[in-house]
Amino acid sequence: AFALVGTSTHLFSRAMRIQAPLSHRASTASRLSCASAVRTDPPAMIGRVLASSGRHAASAMLATSRQPRMVGAALSARAIVGRCEAGRRSRTAASAAASSERVTTDAKRVVVVGGGFGGLYAAIRLTSLFWPKGKTPQVTLVDQSDCFTYKPLLYELINGSANKEEVAPYFNQLLAPYPIRFVQGKVVGIEEESGSDVEVSGKVQLEGGTSLDYDYLVMGLGSQTDTRGIPGVKDYALPFNSYEDAVKVQAALDQIEARGDPSATIMIVGAGYAGVELAVVVAERLKGAAAIQLVTPGASVLEGCPAGQRKAAETALAELGVDVLCRTKVEKMSAPGSEGALPHATSVSLLEETGAREQETALVLWTAGSSPTTKAAEGRKGIPFPINERGAIQTEPTLRVSSHPHVFALGDASSIEMPADAGGVLPATAQVAFQQADYAAWNLWATINGRSLLPFRYQHLGNMMSLGQLNAAVALPVELPPPIKSTLNASPVGPLLGMLGVKLGGDDAANAGVTLEGPLAQLIRRGAYLYRQPTNEQRVSVASGWLQQALSLAASGRFPVPK
User: Which single residue of 180, 193, 406, 433 could bond 117 by disulfide (Cβ 3.0 to 4.6 Å)?
Assistant: First the structure.
């Protein structure tokens, strides 16, 4: 039993560690070669690595092709805390130093548009690579918000499981340890330059008339809420896609709680991961102060997701009293008919199997899908790059934009033609953006230094979903042979696995996956997200917040500590 749990934990630990796709010996040799050569001759170091290990050594210098990197994982706690203090004290100095970085005729200007998982992590990876002397690029990150939103933790703002510093830290705070300049502004267009006599590849035009010159451009514009063209959704429903959205939802829930009307109804539209997680945290917060409905046109919640997670979600929703309306479509939304309604109240037209009906709701939260920012006419205005039918920027397998050798695109607003044996169409998830950030950074390095580019290869690392402060469901990317599952389930080990929250699944293909549930799954989920924080300073901040929360829960008797 413990071996099985250890194997599961190892898979997720392996998914977060920085490991190059080499044998241990080759990887160690490459790192030693890098360490000794970088102090004397960086170009020779890179040439030696590429010559000795070829394509695989190139992957070794990539932040990682398979997992998110934990930068400086071997630092002691004292060193990490010291670095935090130093980062805070030198934030202003670091920002100034970024603009006065050593400049030579070989130094390139790289502008990264969009500070989501793809853009932010690519910028940080880019500065972490070994650069030949005089070629370290000037990296500028542009985003219209002053905060980075860690979306997988966004839901936990609602029930108090996370705070603003953990979910939406400021870019200036995150980038203080790195030679990256941050510019807050809205991008209104991209101007490309052509000809042999031009000094730059193009300009990023910002709202207000300012512009940023670039030699290389990375587009990571992310996604936006998709209303599916349903009338009234944009005017009456609240989306849940950013920190600003979460603040509005919190304020609306405060108003419902203050009204004190248990008959009030909160409707959450969309029963994918986002809808289920949001329904759980809202129900957990309100504790019966309002009726919660989860609406989906499908036959069940989490359609197309692992069966183990679907069962865990159905159980959690039922225990919290969430009413799931399956095979129900939203036709339109309009102003409420009753007087004295709450500010976000609306009348929703529903189409069910039994027919159409109208329902008054105190609040509608929309999670029924997202689309690339470049899909709408306003979002693609001024973008001179090829856009596919899905509204995403079309790229080559190397993430370079088709027919634009100086531009790369990644994340939700990009589309890459993946071979069928490499996963086909990529999901619009943070997991994909994490992995693409490493490839984009390496391929930029390779382009600038005249090396071969690597085609992106996506590795699915499983799915994680929060089902409350102390509950979660983690679907592992592993399947046990039916004979082993049957033997384990029928043996005395079976009850122990159940106590630990390990579900081995059934013998049929639809239920073959291994799922972790309960506090163990929540611990693994939080550990994974802690590793995936962009900086060591942010990891320390988040870890300290979670530790204080755990101590508070234990003191109140709500945390399941062993007796």
Answer: 433
